[in-house]
Amino acid sequence: MNSVYNVVELIGTSGESWEAAAEVAVAEASKTLRDLRVAEVLEQDVLIEDGSIIAYRVKLRLSFKHENDG
User: Fold this and answer.
1) Who's near 10: CB < 8 A, 6+ residues apart?
2) pLDDT at residue 66 tops 80
3) pLDDT at 14 over 90
4) Hey, how many other C-beta atoms are within 10 angstroms of the C-beta on 56?
């Protein structure tokens, strides 16, 4: 069977870790997108304030199965 997938990029943030930031992004995407398949980490960075890390950020490329309206 042939399949087609859509791809979106998202940025998730967390005060705890990069893993938690990815979980936030996937959880939010799952509220409006169905049949999520793969999340590929594109970038990781941190926000720094007064010499301390205050947030972890992850940019994800997220794929989900394309739904044909017909």
Assistant:
1) 25, 28, 29, 59, 60, 62
2) yes
3) yes
4) 21
Give 65 or 19, the one with higher predicted confidence.
19
Q: What is the pTM (predicted TM-score) of this model?
A: 0.85
CA pseudo-torsion sign 51, 52, 54, 60? positive
Tokens linked to 24: 């936030």
Given a contact cutoff of 8 angstroms between Cβ atoms, the answer to whether 23 and 13 are in contact is no
Give the whole-angstrom CA distance, residue 35 versus residue 43: 23
User: How many Å separate Cα 41 from the centre of its chain?
Assistant: 8
Percentage of residues in the chain having pLDDT higher than 70: 96
CA 20 to chain centroid, in Å, comes to 10
